[in-house]
Description:
It is built from 14 helices and twelve strands. By secondary structure, it is of the alpha/beta class.
Amino acid sequence: MIGRLLSYALTGVVTLTGTYAVFLTVLTIPYFQNHAIYLHGFKMTWGQDLNVPEQWGFMKNQVTPFSLTTSDKQKIHAWHILPLELYNKHQQELCQEPSGFVKDITTRLSFKLLRDDPEALLVIYLHGAGGTLGSGYRPPSYRAMYAGGPNKIHTIAIDYRGFGSSTGSPSETGLLLDASTLVRWATMEAQIPPSRIVLFAQSIGTAIGASLVRDLARQSPPVHFAGIVFVAPFSDAEALTSTYKIAGTIPLLSPLARFPILMKYFHGFIKDKLRTKDKLEDFVRTCEHSSIEIPKYDITIIHAEDDWDIHWSHSETLFWHAVNGSVVRGIAFDELDHIKQQNKTFLDFGGWAFEWRTDKGIIREEITKYGLHDRIMSYPIVSLAVLRAFGIK
């Protein structure tokens, strides 16, 4: 009897090991690797029409669905979300317009309310992996964007290529091109200066956002947003895959953590490196050493301790790299941690916060006790971060 049980147990272990080995082999294939990292195949809005935003509780024509065309001819689906108080002032006119997808958004009142108001503010929203514009806590988080400025904070959110109704398939360079296309549209078509734009990004969107602001800062002339808000970021793809579980249950490479050689081997197959920490550090260093006068940068990094998708230690690493970019001699992680322990603002059950200031800008780290990976996006801490980024007190 015992021998039979041992045989069954051994068979089970061998089967699981073999299955995981096959899984790892599949992950080395770029097509399947893309699906594992970006999760764009998980729509999470099945049976819902992304051109009918009212399904997510928005008022008629408070959200305008439209599309952007990238330089490589991909169609990127987008939502323009009007702040509620502004919508209320123009509700009668807005409701007289047709609902649904708009081929030319420049003909719509919502667009004109954005473009023609010299005090209008805009949040460029880059969402995380998986799902669509309407998935999970994203619709509530759009409301959090304008919560502190319900008469003037507009939001433009996009589904990257391969997500939702957008064409193409995702890649790091492709998603960066999608984000850059949105920035060009916002600054040129909608005529909103960067000083009235805040970049909000969550999860995998933070990797794209870090690349975006780094590249814009290196342009001639450089482009700088009013502020940057990153929620639940990760440091890079290698660190992420070492701890990440698909849908919170299926591990990618974490079982290999005890075998550094094997871990390094499989990391070599990761095509999209998504080095958020390096790009953000480069951005800060570029700002700090700019030879011309530029606006002060404003960066907020927010993470929940109970995030079981991406551990909050990723934000610790990201914050350290950002601060390191601001210090000429550099700063060791332990040295910065000592300074943080001496100067943190403790918020009891709300978590804690710390600010690093230089003559050129400010970098904030806010760690909450609660919020998970996605729910936190709709919390007041995010609304306040957006307000601060715009300089609204």
